[in-house]
Amino acid sequence: MQKKQVIESEDERSSATRLAFQLRDILGRGARRVRIEAGPPLSQLTVLGHLQRRGALSTNDLAAAERVRPQSMTATVKALEKDGLIGRRPHPTDGRQMLLEMTPKGTKTLEDIFAMREDWLTTLIIRHLDDRDRHDLERGLALINRIIESE
What is the pLDDT, as a whole number, of residue 142? Predict the structure, then answer.
């Protein structure tokens, strides 16, 4: 697969700009529709997601993964700790650091929220998309993922 490095014309740039606007708009609206009011805020859910996928991490690792300042991540981590969704343990090789990990309550909370969201989306996909549409959606998701993961 050949990657294009340079926009060759103003029309191509304009087209890419329109696509970028539409992608941002659709992803934003989709995220708002999927979001439920029960449970932790999105910033906390993303931290729980990182811990679920990657295991125990430091606050600095989480900040880097979310591209936020460590000070901002500290506030998120404190809220999660206060709610009993994550806990701390000493780093096995660096005595200066603590690792954060999900508690059983954090795991259950995340699983419940994801199950509710997936059930809602599954219902919409079944109701509104035929096999061809589902194939198109799968292809579109692969393209979106390629864009998101490229940087």
Answer: 95
